[in-house]
Amino acid sequence: MNLKDKVFIVTGASSGIGEELCKQLSSSGSLVVCAARRLNELERVCSLINDSGGRSVPIKTDITVLKECKEMVSIALDTFGRIDGLILNAGISMWARFEDITDIAFFKNLMDVNYMGAVNCVHAALPHLKSSKGKIISCSTGQALMGFPRHSGYAASKHALHGFLSTLAIENKNEITILEAILGWIKDTNLRGNAFGPDGKTQKKPPKQHSKESISLDRCVNKIIYAIEKDWRTTYIPLKLRLIPFFKAFWRWYLEFRADQVVEKPK
User: 10 and 25 in contact (C-beta within 8 Å)?
Assistant: First the structure.
């Protein structure tokens, strides 16, 4: 895909990976629709892009509401006339062993945002993506492919999204393409800081970043954009995550041991 003059909708665009994706896409010549719930932050991101010579539009959107997703798509079409890419980046996480959770209500929030939010966006945008032979990009995680300690609800929501997108790829073969970015620990995002704790509330003291395991935000987004340009179906960031399917098939015990180790004994 040549990114010049292509129109991308990016959810979760107000910070972290979403913000950086918007900036790097614009630098590549793309037209960007920045969507998230925090309008003031979206306007900040769009001002940076537009002041640098790019073209972007902020759209306040709660992706858990289908009507708002349809409005997001409608505004994107009115503004730019087409949609070439939908980047499913918005997400929330958790950090708690299941047995320690006192209120499981937040599991619904995880599914509403990480899974149903993506479904809502795709449902609204799919006809227009098919018209342009466009692309859906999912900013996913290794936890979409395996279980992970302290992330039971998060992993479940990402498993659901993985299954949904795998099915769409089959149903819409030769009409759209789908890229899943399988991510590990990424620096400078709010995912951990906004994660649910065992009491169902945002943690006051989020877990420390895994310094040796983390990838810089700029490097992560650069690799996602490279995969978009190359029309890949999957990209693993860091590359070692591509071993997950192999270890899951043949050495599950080692995969589970390593998952437990990186959570319980971070380096």
Answer: yes
